[in-house]
C-alpha cells in the first residue's frame, strides 16, 4: 500500500470531520494500514474545553487559543522527515481551527486571533490529501452519546448543527489540498472490512481530481 501512496505523490493525509464523525478512529486505522506516523489532536489536554461546553461565551477565547497553539506545535514535527515512517496521517488540519474561531469568538477576540494565526500560518505544512467525513447531525449526536465522553456530555445538538453547517461551507471552498468528501452516514470504516477497503481504493485511485465525492452506500447498491 505504501508503494501506491508513493506513486501518487502523497505523503501526508489528514482526516477531518465534525465532532463525532469518527475521524480519529479512521486516522488510526489508516495509519496502521500504511505504516504511517500518526498525529492525533490532544483535545483532553485543553483545560478550558469542558468549561467551554458549559459556558461558551466565557471560555471560547481561551479554549480557542490553547487549541491553536497546541495544533501549531504538534504540526511542526512535519518539518522533520522520518526515514522509518515516510507517511503521515493526522486527524485534523490546521486550517480547521478557523471554523471554530469564527463560530465561537466575538469580533474583538477574532482580531487578536487573526493576528496570531497570520504569524503561525506560514510555517504549517499542508496535507497532500484531506478526507472529509460528512454525515448528518443525527448520526453525529448518536456517536457522541454512544461514546459517552465526560468532556462532551454538555455538547448541545444546536452547537453540532451549527458546526456541521460551518464544516460543509468550509470544505465546499477548500483549495489548499486535494479533498475526498465522503458521505459516511451509513458507512462503518472501523468494523466493516469492505467499507474500509473500498475507501482505500477511492483514496489511491489515479484519476482523483482536486475534489472528489464518494458515497459508500451507492457503491454497495451497485454491487448488489
Descriptive labels:
alpha/beta; 50% helix; 6 strands; 224 residues
Short description:
With 224 residues, this protein is of the alpha/beta class.
Question: Can you describe what's shown?
Answer:
The chain is of the alpha/beta class and 224 residues long. The chain has a single domain, classed as Rossmann fold. The chain is 50% helix and 12% strand. It has helices at residues 2-7, 23-34, 49-54, 56-75, 97-104, 107-121, 137-147, 157-172, 193-203, 216-223; strands at 12-17, 37-39, 88-90, 129-134, 178-183, 211-214. Helix 9 links the parallel strand 5 and strand 6. Helix 4 packs antiparallel against helix 5. The chain starts with a helix and ends with a helix.
Low-pLDDT segments, ≥5 res: 1-7
- Strand residues, percent: 5-15%
What would the principal axes of the Cα set say about the shape? Answer: globular
Would you give the CATH topology? Rossmann fold
**How are helices and strands ordered from N to C?**
HEHEHHEHHEHHEHEH
Q: Which CATH class applies here?
A: Alpha Beta
Number of strands: 6
CATH second-level architecture: 3-Layer(aba) Sandwich
Rg result: 17 Å
In whole angstroms, the N-to-C terminal distance is 27 Å
In terms of structural class, how would the helical and strand content be classed? alpha/beta
Q: CATH homologous superfamily name? A: P-loop containing nucleotide triphosphate hydrolases
Mean pLDDT, to the nearest integer, reads 90
- Helical fraction: 40-55%
| Strand order in space, largest sheet | 2-3-1-4-5-6
Total helix count?
Answer: 10
Amino acid at each position: 500500500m505504501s508503494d501506491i501512496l508513493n506513486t501518487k505523490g502523497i505523503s501526508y493525509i489528514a482526516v477531518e470531520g465534525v465532532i463525532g464523525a469518527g475521524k480519529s478512529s479512521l486516522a488510526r486505522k489508516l495509519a496502521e494500514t500504511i505504516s504511517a506516523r500518526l498525529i492525533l489532536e490532544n483535545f483532553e489536554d485543553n483545560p478550558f474545553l469542558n468549561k467551554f461546553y458549559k459556558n461558551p461565551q466565557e471560555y471560547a477565547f481561551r479554549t480557542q487559543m490553547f487549541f491553536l497553539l497546541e495544533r501549531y506545535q504538534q504540526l511542526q514535527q512535519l518539518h522533520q522527515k522520518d526515514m522509518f515512517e515516510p507517511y503521515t496521517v493526522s486527524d485534523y488540519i490546521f486550517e480547521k481551527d478557523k471554523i471554530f474561531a469564527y463560530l465561537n469568538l466575538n469580533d474583538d477576540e477574532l482580531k487578536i486571533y487573526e493576528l496570531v494565526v497570520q504569524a503561525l500560518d506560514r510555517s504549517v505544512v499542508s496535507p497532500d490529501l484531506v478526507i472529509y467525513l460528512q454525515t448528518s447531525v443525527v448520526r453525529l449526536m448518536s456517536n457522541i452519546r454512544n461514546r459517552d465522553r465526560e468532556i462532551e456530555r454538555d455538547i448541545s445538538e444546536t452547537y453540532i448543527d451549527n458546526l456541521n453547517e460551518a464544516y460543509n461551507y468550509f470544505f465546499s471552498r477548500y483549495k489548499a489540498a486535494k479533498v475526498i468528501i465522503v458521505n459516511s452516514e451509513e458507512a462503518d470504516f472501523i468494523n466493516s472490512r469492505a467499507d474500509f477497503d473500498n475507501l482505500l481504493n477511492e483514496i489511491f485511485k489515479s484519476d482523483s481530481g482536486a475534489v472528489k465525492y464518494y458515497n459508500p452506500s451507492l457503491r454497495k447498491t451497485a454491487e448488489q
